[in-house]
Amino acid sequence: MTVIVGVRYLAVSGAFAVATRAVRPGLYAGLKPQIGREIGWSLASAAIYGVPAGIIAWGWQARGWTRIYADPGAWPLWWMPVSMLLYLAAHDSWFYWTHRWMHRPRPFRLAHAVHHASRPPTAWAAMSFSPLEALTGAVVIPALVFLIPIHVAMLGVVLAIMTVMGVTNHMGWEMFPRAVVHGPIGRWLITASHHQRHHQHYRCNYGLYFRVWDRLCGTDRGLGSFDRPARRN
Fold it and tell me: Do residues 127 and 37 touch, judged by C-beta distance below 8 A?
């Protein structure tokens, strides 16, 4: 599972890095040392994510421990999209509050500084975490499979959304059309423009998928810009 998580990261981040080179040539110019660090930290995070994922996969297939099911008739068909949304909402809630906690001074130094060392973040930064931060992210989905029934295909969709949004929110440009980002959907959905402001100002825009918690808690500061900041020595 560690290999799978690592290969998935390399494939998806690599694909969006290639797309960035085509769509925004020169955007990552001069960032080769930073990208190397991002890849190193991300592969270390993949090892941490792989441990609970492997235990869950084995427990599901060999022991029937989880509430993952493969028979579409085991639950009503309407439950499939509902369960997917429940997983995304639960993951988003966990991420918001742990992410906000990690922006307190001491947790930031211990756990989150590695991620914010990417200035500006790139498509390779999605999993660039310290071991402590990686651990907080690695337990969420494995915990949910013991609590909320989900079809294996919907679990795959959740993991795909998690991976793609994690990468695209850090790649330094907006892939969604303006009508989405600045329209009614964009008021509730996090895109690269929204997360960019978090990396610019730190104490705002903590969500992962949705802007609900940010809006409820007064931490939503709107959309950021993609102006390249001056490099720090």
Answer: no
Cβ neighbours of residue 111 closer than 8 Å, sequence gap 6 or more: 102, 130, 132, 133, 136
pLDDT tens-digit readout, 160-217: 999 999 999 999 999 999 999 999 999 999 999 999 999 999 999 999 999 999 999 9
The values of phi and psi at residue 69, to 5°, are -130, 150
Tell me if 83 sits within 8 A of 133, measured CB to CB. no
Report the alpha-carbon distance of residue 130 to residue 108 in Å, rounded.
Answer: 10
Rounded distance between C-alpha atoms, residue 164 and residue 55, angstroms: 24
- Residue 70 three-state SS: coil
Structure tokens at 23: 């769509």
- φ and ψ at 187, to 5 degrees? -70, -20
Buried residues in 59-95 as b, exposed as e (16+ CB within 10 A): bbeeeeebebbeeeeebeeebbeebbebbbebbbbbb
The Cα–Cα gap between 13 and 127 comes to 10
- pLDDT tens column, 63-72: 788 999 999 9
Distance CA 173, CA 168 (A): 8
What pTM did the predictor assign? 0.91
Query: Measured between alpha carbons, how far apart are the two ends of the chain, in Å?
Result: 38
How far apart CA 99 and CA 52 sit, in angstroms, is 20
